[in-house]
Amino acid sequence: MTSPIIPLIDDISILYSEPKLDAARARWADLVSQFEQLYGRVPDFIARSPGRVNLIGEHIDYAGFGVLPMAIENDCLIAVAVDHTNNKVQLANVNSKKYPTLEFTPKPRQEGYVSINPEEHVWSNYFSAGYRGILEELRIEQPKGMLCLMSGTVPTGAGLSSSSAFVCCAVNATVKAQESLLEKSKMPSAHELAIISIRSERYVGTMGGGMDQACSILSKPQSALFIEFHPVLKVTPVFFPTTQPPIAFVIANTMVTSDKAVTAPVRYNLRVVETRGAARILALALGIPIPASGKLHLKQVLDAHFENIGYQAAGKTEAEAEIEKLAEMTQIVERVLGTEEIRSGISFEKMCELADISKDEFTRLYIHQQIRADTFHLYRRAKHVYSEEKRVVQFRDTCEKSMKNQDLASETLFSQLGDLMNASQDSCHKLYDCSCDELEELTALARRAGAYGSRLTGAGWGGATISLITEDKVPAFIAYLKKEFYAKHYPDLGGAELDRAIFATAPSSGAATFVGR
Ligand code: NG1
Ligand code: MG
Prior knowledge:
Layout: H1 18-39, E1 45-56, E2 68-83, E3 89-93, E4 102-104, H2 125-138, E5 145-152, H3 162-177, H4 190-201, H5 211-218, E6 224-228, E7 234-238, E8 247-253, H6 260-263, H7 268-285, H8 298-308, H9 318-337, H10 340-343, H11 348-354, H12 359-366, H13 378-404, H14 410-430, H15 437-448, E9 453-456, E10 464-470, H16 474-489, H17 495-501, E11 502-505, E12 512-515
Parallel strand pairs: 3-5
Antiparallel strand pairs: 1-2, 1-12, 2-5, 3-4, 6-7, 8-10, 8-11, 9-10
The structure holds 2-acetamido-2-deoxy-1-O-phosphono-alpha-D-galactopyranose (NG1) and magnesium ion.
Catalytic activity: alpha-D-galactose + ATP = alpha-D-galactose 1-phosphate + ADP + H(+)
Protein name: Galactokinase
Organism: Lobosporangium transversale
């Protein structure tokens, strides 16, 4: 059997940088041949979605604020053959020892097609979430059967968004497989697919903000992506100026895994709830009416406040005005939430009392998944969010200015960007409590090894760091961290495994489906 997809493997050079291309070609070819062995037929197409690394803007997407990630070369591939004879779904993984095969016959649409139990942490939940989310959106009654084989190279639990790469890939694979059931005009746009993927991942049980799915689906080659969420999802590519030596980013994984789905009640989802509590109390203090839905986040508070006071940005650029507003919001946080009573944390009861809402109503509005906490830290969380967004605006503005005015000395540019990344790490550590010893150690070592800036990326509590350095220094930088961090903490880690833990990354492009010709 010769797959019509094989010739396409030549075209994947747009997805991976030169040093990684041979290995990528071998992996795609292997996926196709394993597919043939498993299902006795060739796949109809391969869907691909990349992971991402967040350059700056951590834990602020769910507060409505803009973030600046970029897609990476590590990705999720799903090879698919559409089965026109029945509606059964089979999903196997090339690593079948670690990831058992999922098989199901979809339930009726009204019953959500497939059961997903967020309490049961199985790898295939992410596929099921994407499959269910897109079929619900398209209101498909009789989905076509799908034979699927997945291959993933985004490390799991590393903050590089293996989960969203998988959900987005499942969404893309499913929509492509069902395309014959849809009128052309009903095919969702990439923008719609991103929104559907954001919603879909919530079936797995995290109250995520949307950065990862938007980045995986909407990234453009050679650039990072500025993503705004409020009032609507909007993306703008951000380019780095050509400098000599060129700018480079290195990802280094602490190898401490933090599975967000497992720890959500005490970490991720708790942070979402703390920022919601803070938003309500700030709104009350500023005389901002709570919307009829009862829901609001910290970005809405900022917008409403500056509208209330009739803020005029006269003579300022958009970025300058934004920075001024964010600085003022941190002052307001200081005044309203930095009081003796609230500053060092409050109980759930106290939070509801100050937010002028009953415990039941608060739970109904904001706590969709279980939360376990005695103390809620509204002051430090809100302070992080507003100051982090200020850094995002500054980072983006610095890149854009230096694109226009290429004579900004590259040393100055790198230092400015690096300082913002370091300040972000500091805030994640001290205000957001989402760092850990290994992240602190690794980012400190990275700076010692010459990084202009180094910070955790993704949700934190483990996972990877991202460091800004120049291309000429990458080999020495990697060698230093291998010696000073990996050899000490993980003496058994070597060869290809070690190279998967620490590597330079280039911006990749967003999700796509590859069909044979
Ligand atoms: P990770 O842990 O990398 O999946 C999560 C969220 C993001 C964002 C970051 C923190 C999901 C799918 N991802 O990323 O939306 O909030 O944490 O900045 O929930
Ligand atoms: Mg994730």
